[in-house]
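Hi W.,

Here's what went into the run:
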Amino acid sequence: MTEALLTVGAGVLGLSFIGLLGGALLQYASKAFKVDGNPLVDSIDALLPQTQCGQCGHPGCKPYAEAIANGEAINRCPPGGQETVDRLANLLGVESLPLDADETTADQDLVAVIIEEECIGCTKCIQACPVDAIIGAAKLMHTVIVDDCTGCDLCVDPCPVDCIDMVPRPKAPDYWMPQPPNVISSDRFGQIGMQHG
Amino acid sequence: MAEYQIRRCDRQLEGGIHPETHKDLSTTEPCVFVDDPKRLVFPIHFSGGGPGEALVAVGDTVSQGTPIIKCQSGIIHVASRAGTVIDITDHAITHPSANQSASIIIEPSGLKEQSYLDPLVWPFDADSLRNRAIEAGILGLGGAGFPSFKKWSDGTQTLIINAAECEPYLTADDTLMRIDTHSMIRGACMLSRTLDIKTIVIGIEDNKPEALEAIEDALKESRSDCFFDIVLLDTKYPSGSERHLVWLTLGIEVPTGSRSVELGVIVHNPGTLAALSRAIDGKPITDRIVTLTGEALKAPKNVIAPIGTPINHLIEATDTSPSSLTSITVGGPMMGYAVTEFTAGITKTTNCLLARDVEIPPESPCIRCGACATVCPIRLQPQQMVFALKGGSLDLAVHEGLGDCIECAACNAVCPSHIPLAEWFRLGRFEVRDQANEQRLASEARERFEARNARLERIAQEQEAKRAARKAKTADALEKARKAREQTA
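Here's what came out:
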């Protein structure tokens, strides 16, 4: 009888010990390897174009990324275009949706340009720019740093003298893309004869 | 006599093809100078070395060697002949973009006015040599046009002369090695001495016995203390690709995403080294050897032509009427591109003008034969990459190894369905470049957005703190006043 009790007691104690040990390990791991924030938000944010334009209805790309992580629709980013929607669908493992934007706003690479003669130096556009791409001071002319402009057009509305235009992003003078059909001659000049093999 | 050895390469290029070389088409005739053309065209942004700015204005008189374009990388391009700048305007250019671009047009005067640099006298250090390469406009003359001075880092151990010239039809390097051997050897020795390189490797395909003989003769006369390791490669395309040449000659595999320079190996085209030798004597690049070849030309040959010579002038130099051709390939038949505007001037990277009369076979569906994968020298699966690109999935193509593709077009040459695989890859690689750029801009924008938010928050907090301090101060003062009132009362 005692022997049986001992056996059962040893079993119970042993298993409790293993349970406690496991619990302690889990407790330690949850503290030591704690991940700050939602990692999914960062992966989503990395796919968004970072124009910070607010066309999705959120004040910036990060907030939209958080909203997507919480279940909002993935097709509300016109600057990202259909490509971004597809990538988000791929990341989240959901069905891709058609982009929620009219043809004119989608997929245009624009930048803001201040017509400098007309600028009155009110600094309203500087305050509106989400990415600090406009420089200037009160009562002094402002200008857009073209390389830093994301084309969000948030500076256009606040301008009291309407001196900001959205224009296509200028290309570097040596920017080029090969133009089909002249991309590579082995496609266009027929097959090369082979000696052997 | 310089020490040298000739050995056969003991490594085999994996993949690759054996195309008909057609090299004797242009090597049977001697290499000649062409007459000066009526006008010379120098694209400001596409002469090699990045976007540039014009150093001359319309109406200026220039001598042979007068700087006319300064590029962002520092590289200076000079006028190849004395004459007058008659226009700076958009003009057709010898470039795969097939666009017009701002160009300087010079009308040669036929005078022999020269304005060269002072000769560089030994001993000089690596920096003086780099400066000289910049002033003399030394670019990779093999076709890529990479500014040579950027390769010359101090930890370099080996210089490889890329004399493989594996593209069919091309014989410009072969010709240079036959007629300008001493300059090439001297340039290689000068570079090696300044960078303290001990071994110079010459990788040459075994279909150039005349060039090999000329190199041997030159080495016997040379007094260089460098050791020359001449490696005879099997004639197989693309053994002249930089990565493959480094592996074939040295047994070093250049990892994905890095360059041979990072491994202490620099690879130069023979023409680049010959140009460097002349630059040390003070002469910037004004001319280059161009192969004019192809079955559609009546008298194919190699010529020495001034940089900027219009293509139609060179076609005429082969007794052929430019109007008989609709399009000409610039570069070899494998990796070259087509140019249809014959008024465009040749640049420093134009090594060959190829005119062929070939029917373009129509494209048929892929039959999954795997021939492209067998010949791919990078061991990629070209058919998979093309499926990905045709399906619009750039990410998948990159996953399949698009970033490692060297665009050698061996897959094109063997595809029984005539699918233009290399065209897809070249376009795809440009899209990858654009996308990487976009991503860089996006992450910069994110940083600025976050910095701005942090700043706004900090300002708000500071204002809040100030308000709280002011409030406390007022409360304090009120309290004091109350106490004072109580005391008086």
